[in-house]
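Most newcomers find our protein records easier to grasp once they have seen one. Read left to right, the backbone structure tokens trace the chain's path through space. Once this layout is familiar, the rest of the handout is easier to follow. The record below serves as our worked example for the rest of this section:


***
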Amino acid sequence: MTDDIISNEQIEQAIQVVRGQRVLLDTDLASLYGVPAKVLNQAVKRNLDRFPEDFMFQLTQEEAESSRLQIVTLDSAQNSRSQAVTSKRGSNIKYLPYAVTEQGVAMLFSILRSTQAQP
């Protein structure tokens, strides 16, 4: 059952600074919760009124390119999944990722229906 526990190290490695805020990208957060990013983003869309811009925001093309560089430079086996996703996208990003702030993570925790997210 220890595989179900998310370590502080995994979370710290996934945190990035965007617009001066510490955030987790939607794909990394979904991975930590053990759900596809699509499921996470659908949960947000069903509860948009709970996610003001200080909880979650979409990256610009420039920010997304910069975040890809941060992901690739992380020295961790945990991020090999993120590197693979980045590689598949090629040089153009098809979907701009969302950045989730600490408040947004807490809100997602309360609405996301996954084994890892339930108290």
Summary: Residues 2-111 form one domain. The first strand starts at residue 16 and ends at 18.
